[in-house]
Amino acid sequence: MRHLVAHRKLGRTSSHRRALLRNLATSFVTHERIVTTLPKAKELRPFVEKAITLGRRARQERQAGNVAAAVHASRLASGFFFAGNASRDWSKPHLQQAERTAGVAALQKLTGELAERFADRPGGYTRILKLGRRKGDGAEMAIIEFIGSESKKTVTDKDAKQSEKSK
Q1: pTM listed for this prediction
Q2: Helix (H) or strand (E) holding 144
Q3: Distances, alpha carbon 60 to alpha carbons 39, 66, 128, in Å
C-alpha cells in the first residue's frame, strides 16, 4: 500500500530531484512556458505554485509596508530557484561586476510581474497540456504554462523549418 507517498521519484536521488525541480522552475518562471515530460510537469506544478504564492505574499507585504515580512517571503521563494551570482570571485569584488543569474532574474519576475498578474487569483496559476508521445522513447510529453500566457506563442523546430521552407 502507498499510504502517505506524495511525490514521484522520477528515477533520481532526492538531491538530483530537487536540483531538477529548481532548474525546471527557474526556466518555467523565466520563459512562462516549457515543454517537458508529463510526470515532470505534474511534479513541477505544485512546486511552482507554492513559489508563486510566496511571491504574491512578498508583494502584498511590501505594499502594506511590512518590509521584514516581504524580505522573509522573498527569501523563502528564492529557495525554489538556483542561487544567483554563484560564479562570482568574491576575492576580487572590485574587478568584476557579476551579472544576474537566471535564479535572481526569475525571483525578480516572480515577485514583480507574476505576483501582480496573479494578485486576485487564489490559486491554480498553471495549466498542463498533453502533447502525445515522443518519437524516440515514447515518453508522454506536455506543455506547462501560466494561465494568461496564451498570447505568447511557443516556437517548435517544426514551425521554424516550415516557415523557412515557405520563404
Answers
A1: 0.78
A2: strand 140-146
A3: 33, 9, 27
pLDDT tens per residue, range 83-102: 765 555 656 666 555 566 88
More confident residue, 152 or 63: 63
Which CATH entry fits the domain spanning 14-86+96-166: 3.90.1030.10, 3.40.1160.10, 3.90.79.10, 3.40.50.2300?
Answer: 3.90.1030.10
DSSP states of 94-123 as a string? TT--PPP-HHHHHHHHIIIIIHHHTTT--S
The domain segmentation of the chain, as residue ranges, is 14-86+96-166
Place of cell 494561465: 147
DSSP codes joined into one string, 44-56:
HHHHHHHHHHHHH
